[in-house]
Amino acid sequence: MTDRTVPQIPGIRCLPEVEVYLKQQVSAILRTRPNTFPGSQPISFTREHLHRNLMTRDYLVCEKSDGLRVLLFVLVNPDTNEEGTFLISRENEYYHIADFHFPRSAKNFDQSHNGTIIDGELVYSTNPVTKVKEIRYLIFDCLAMDMTSVMHKNLLKRLYHAQQEFHHPYIQLRRKFPDACKDWPFKLDFKNMTQPFKIHRIFDEMKNLTYVSDGLILTCCDTPYISGTDTTLLKWKPAEENTIDFKIGLEFPTFVDTDLPKHDPNREYTNYDVKPKFKLYVWKGGDDPFKHETVEDNIKRNGGEYRSSFANYDEWNDLVVTDEQWESMKNSGESFNGRIAECRQNKDGEWEFLRFRDDKLNGNHINVVLKILKSIEDAVTKEEIIALEPQIKAAWEERERMRQKAQQQQQNFVQKSQQKLPNSVPEKRKFEDQDETAVKKLNSERNKVPIVAATGGDNDNDEFYESDGFEEEPSKI
Fold first, then answer.
1. Distance between CA atoms of 65 and 472, rounded to whole angstroms?
2. Which of 34, 278, 299, 311 has its CA 20 to 30 A from that of 113?
3. d(Cα 324, Cα 339) in Å, to the nearest integer?
4. Where in the chain are the domains?
5. What is the mean pLDDT of residues 216-228?
6. What would the CATH number be for the domain defined by 243-378?
7. Catalytic member of 23, 64, 237, 360
8. Cα dist from 49 to 220, 387, 393, whole Å
9. Are 271 and 253 within 8 A, CB to CB?
10. Spatial separation of the C-alpha atoms in residues 419 and 405, rounded to whole Å
11. In three state form, how does the secondary structure of the chain look?
């Protein structure tokens, strides 16, 4: 079976007072609520999205890594002028990563980022040269750049900030000073992204990845970054890879010693030596009333035995655990009751265990579970998406023609307006000159991408955003 181990967040959890301060800083920069994770969340891809989204809007596509989603936050301490690097988990917990440095420019490595927030995912990657398993942070979006939110900008602009202003200076620093960077806890890479009418290239690339990938992420080019659920951000997985996070409950049988009298308190006891029933519980939402309870208070409340809380959870189904799996679990010495487990259905409709998700406080909400089940039932295959590429390309090119036509009409309007202006109104002329400059800037905006213009060209080798090739030069970065 593929190793689906999720990396633990490196670094040290911030002290409560530090975490409060950092949340306030992020909230001030992004204009989001301080007590909620500011990152976006995708919805599951269904058949209706084939035509409602991919045929009517511009999207970029990248593979979906099977890792740990975290935001990367770089902030300079205003009192000490020290640079701090922090990872923000989906539970909105902040972890400090010591000794990292992210230069603001490739020309001046001393100046650091301050108030920059990047979106990405931590994965275990096997170095193709050394075969060593290492942690990588894969960048795929940007929320803020130097104390200024860029969430309102379109995807192309956000990716430009992330790649050219954040990732590129970092790469140059590592290449120029490899020894100084060798002990950093993880390396950064930039996810390959391309148009959906070249989606076959992403599928081909997934075969050669150095980490586990279980699907696709499709991001709309023309919408802002949405904190929380983004209905334009789509997550596609093959039916067999659609998973759900449940809370596990273990039910051990009660053993009755018939040799003892009925009134003997030792006559009945829980038999922990046999395999229990594994129950899956689905989260209904809301806070656990016992979330902050101490171990001592839990034991006292439960009559001398520690028990996991299943408040706000309903029993959903059974989890199939083989005798071999149970023996392995027992030998590990770990506790399993009350943990969040990622599960999937097999061809017989049974739920199977994939891995524990200790990075999550709760399983998937019941509404999310129902949507995932609908996605499984209404599954769109890889072959169906690839077969639609010619139609997606034709629709993309038609939208591009319409945009160019509209831009040309704006240019003509501005030029005609300037011709009619009298020379005796210099202030008005100055204003219209600025207007023309703005229009020219608008015309070139969609072409401001690092690799190629967003025109959907015929060259199948063109890519929008691609990594700097760590697989070819692992020793340099």
1. 20
2. 34
3. 20
4. 12-238, 243-378
5. 96
6. 2.40.50.140
7. 64
8. 12, 15, 16
9. yes
10. 21
11. CCCCCCCCCCCEECCHHHHHHHHHHHHHHHCCCCCCCCCEEEEECCHHHHHHCCCCCCEEEEEEECCEEEEEEEEECCCCCCEEEEEECCCCCEEEECCCCCECCCCCCCCECCCEEEEEEEEEEECCCCCCEEEEEEEEEEEEECCEECCCCCHHHHHHHHHHHHHHHHHHHHHHCHHHHCCCCCEEEECCEECHHHHHHHHHHHCCCCCCEEEEEEEECCCCCCCEEEEEEEEECCHHHCCEEEEEEEECCEEECCCCCCCCCCCEEECCCCCCEEEEEEECCCCCCCCCCCHHHHHHHCCCCCCCCCCCEEEEEEEECCHHHHHHHHHHCCCCCCCEEEEEECCCCCEEEEEECCCCCCCCEHHHHHHHHHHHHCCCCHHHHHHCHHHHHHHHHHHHHHHHHHHHHHHHHHHHHHHHCCCCCHHHHHHHHHHHHHHHHHHHHCCCCCCCCCCCCCCCCCCCECCCCCCCCCCCC
Cβ contact 227:40 at 8 Å: yes
CATH for 12-238?
A: 3.30.470.30
- d(CA 356, CA 56) in angstroms, rounded, equals 39
- Other beta carbons within 10 Å of 59: 25
- Kindly report the number of other CB atoms within 10 A of residue 160's CB atom: 18
Question: How many CB atoms are located within 10 Å of the residue 83 CB?
Answer: 17
Is-catalytic flag, 235? no
pLDDT at 118 over 70: yes
The dihedral formed by the CA atoms of 49, 51, 57 and 62, expressed in degrees to the nearest 10: 50
Can you read off the two tokens belonging to residue 289?
Answer: 């009333």
* pLDDT, tens digit, 9 for 90 and up, residues 15-31: 999 999 999 999 999 99
Q: Are 466 and 451 in contact (CB under 8 A)?
A: yes
Distance CA 419, CA 311 (A): 72
Cβ neighbours around 285 below 10 Å, total? 9
Q: In the numeric block, which tokens belong to residue 240? A: 């067999």
CA 106 vs CA 95, 111, 474: distances in Å: 27, 10, 20
Cα separation, 268 vs 262, in Å, equals 9
More confident residue, 332 or 25: 25
The reported pTM is 0.76
What CA–CA distances, in Å, run from 419 to 391, 413, 433?
Answer: 42, 10, 12
Average pLDDT over residues 175-182: 92
